[in-house]
């Protein structure tokens, strides 16, 4: 059972409406409570803070499915070759559901954070003892972190960063109508919040009951991202270096990349910012209810009891399939179940923990082989393992009530910081002086998954490992980061990671055009089912190229035609805001 702050979320949403209900004839109507009647002490402030954490776990904040559908990472599910998904097709607009829902979820979190900040500001002058002042400051720092985080998401997602700013709790209707602020002002605003959080949050939380609360390291990581996103590599590197080297944080890569994707080994040393979910509370309510504390992302990715509404794009599948392993690493060898002899793994560890392939013979999938577990019908040749419960159940519907999962979402982890820091060291592909050091951090990530390392063995941190022997310059290394290391290490992770990366590198339009020229088909895969019967998964093993009588598959043909940088690089201001806020047009 997870003993974390998130287990109290379900009551957190209700707290603001229930305090004062006892002796109701003498108390204020709980449906008409004011700030004067609720925010009486730090316990109230901490209860209010729970609702801010609750806002963070709203699936619309990260919008993992459609944020990836509008990048080059996913195909929007339910079989090829046709889809009406407007994000994949790049024909969404300000009336589309995802930007409207994301906008609403982020602003709801901001409103709640503002309530906590205002409450603590009102309470602080009433305390003189150090313990209360420290507690109040840390509560406030958490609220500042989330307001800064949510505004950083608005800034990196909507209207080229130009959005309204709310740094107060509106007291009447007119105060809800705020004009659009320039992106630079928005950026300065959320960075001030994050700097406050960095200065006042603890490096670590020591009590089990606080597991899942945000830390100074998370603030440093988000600040570093914000500078990287504007190509201020020097400033970004300062924050990333602090995250990497400051011993007070104690971050380290998890022993296995798989430790970051399942319900096992959660809140491990690699995790910097993580959303906690659990099955231990509120199992009786609707899985989509706001006070729900379980996730339903398992149904988004899984074909075994789920809806598989997103699965990997063809180029990503092929890139995973082509990953070369370190032939000197024993982790890449298994004993063949049929012959009893030692052989090389079917696919790399990173590949096997990230996606499910029909011909992966070595990593179980829902307690069977991947081919036995699912049919791979309709041109589907792979599925994401991330966010699913493939390692603990036979079917996602085994978890009852259904459409629930306890798999935490790791939003930022150390491997991501290493790769962003590597980019800073080569200043985005322009600085040869940083190449050797950048390779060092990339190879830390690759070695964890027993992959062939890049560069030369001489001078390597892992000299006994297999290296590709290539002498990299900054440009070639940047290409490796853009098209191999970041997408394969971080597929389907973070906040719009791939969308933002492609946009800031200026490659989105060309990327879709290049990928639209590629053609694939599926080879048949014969295997034995659980009863030992010979069976074939037809057209299930993705192969690049063409083959007579085999059905061709392509990706991003429409995206290449439809993508317009001014219209699709960012989400537009949603029509829900345009309709309800007259000040946005001032």
Automatic annotation (TrEMBL):
* Keyword match Membrane: yes
Its name, as the record gives it, is: Putative outer membrane starch-binding protein
The UniProt record lists the RagB/SusD domain at 303-586
Q: Give the matching Pfam families.
A: SusD-like_3, SusD_RagB
Where is this protein localized, as stated in its record?
Answer: Cell outer membrane
The UniProt keywords, alphabetically, are:
Cell outer membrane, Membrane, Signal
Report if keyword Transmembrane is assigned.
no
């Amino acid at each position: 059972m997870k003993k974390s702050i998130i287990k109290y979320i379900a009551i957190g949403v209700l707290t603001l409406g229930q305090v004062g209900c006892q002796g109701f004839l003498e108390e204020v109507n709980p449906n008409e409570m004011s700030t004067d009647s609720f925010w009486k002490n730090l316990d109230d402030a901490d209860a209010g803070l729970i609702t801010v954490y609750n806002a963070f776990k709203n699936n619309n904040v990260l919008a993992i499915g459609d944020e990836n559908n509008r990048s080059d990472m996913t195909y929007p599910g339910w079989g090829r070759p046709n889809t009406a998904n407007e994000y994949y097709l790049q024909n969404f607009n300000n009336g589309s559901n995802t930007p409207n829902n994301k906008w609403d979820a982020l602003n709801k979190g901001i409103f709640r954070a503002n309530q906590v900040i205002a409450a603590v500001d009102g309470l602080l002058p009433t305390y003189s003892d150090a313990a209360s002042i420290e507690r109040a400051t840390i509560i406030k720092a958490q609220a500042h972190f989330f307001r800064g985080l949510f505004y950083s998401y608005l800034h990196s997602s909507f209207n080229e960063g130009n959005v309204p700013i709310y740094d107060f709790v509106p007291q009447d209707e007119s105060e809800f109508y705020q004009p659009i602020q320039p992106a630079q002002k928005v950026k300065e605003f959320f960075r001030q919040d994050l700097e406050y959080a960095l200065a006042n949050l603890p490096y670590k939380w020591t009590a089990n009951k606080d597991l899942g609360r945000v830390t100074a390291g998370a603030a440093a990581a988000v600040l570093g991202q914000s500078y990287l996103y504007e190509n201020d590599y020097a400033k970004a590197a300062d924050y990333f270096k602090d995250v990497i080297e400051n011993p007070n944080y104690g971050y380290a890569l998890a022993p296995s990349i798989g430790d970051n994707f399942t319900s096992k080994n959660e809140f491990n040393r690699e995790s910097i910012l993580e959303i906690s979910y659990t099955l231990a509370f509120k199992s009786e309510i609707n899985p989509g209810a706001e006070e729900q504390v379980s996730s339903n992302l398992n149904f988004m990715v899984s074909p075994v009891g789920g809806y598989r509404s997103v699965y990997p794009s063809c180029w990503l599948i092929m890139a995973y399939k082509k990953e070369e392993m370190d032939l000197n690493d024993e982790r890449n060898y298994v004993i063949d179940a049929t012959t009893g002899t030692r052989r090389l793994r079917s696919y790399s560890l990173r590949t096997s923990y990230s996606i499910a392939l029909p011909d992966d013979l070595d990593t179980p999938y829902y307690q069977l082989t991947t081919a036995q577990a699912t049919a791979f019908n309709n041109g589907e040749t792979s599925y994401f393992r991330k966010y699913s419960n493939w390692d603990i159940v036979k079917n996602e519907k085994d978890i009852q009530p259904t459409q629930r999962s306890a798999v935490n979402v790791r939003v930022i982890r150390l491997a991501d910081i290493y790769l962003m820091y590597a980019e800073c060291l080569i200043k985005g592909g322009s600085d040869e002086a940083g190449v050797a050091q950048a390779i060092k951090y990339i190879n830390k990530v690759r070695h964890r998954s027993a992959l062939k390392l890049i560069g030369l063995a001489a001078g390597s941190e892992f000299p006994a490992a297999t290296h590709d022997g290539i002498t990299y310059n900054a440009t070639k290394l940047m290409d490796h980061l853009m098209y191999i290391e970041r997408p394969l290490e971080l597929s389907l992770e973070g906040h719009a990671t791939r969308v933002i990366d492609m946009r800031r590198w200026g490659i989105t339009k060309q990327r879709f055009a290049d990928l639209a020229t590629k053609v694939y088909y599926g080879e048949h895969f014969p295997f034995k089912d659980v009863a030992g019967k010979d069976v074939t998964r037809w057209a299930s093993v993705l192969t690049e190229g063409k083959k007579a009588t085999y059905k061709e598959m392509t990706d991003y043909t429409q995206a290449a035609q439809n993508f317009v940088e001014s219209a699709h690089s960012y989400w537009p201001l949603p029509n829900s805001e345009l309709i309800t806020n007259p000040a946005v047009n001032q």
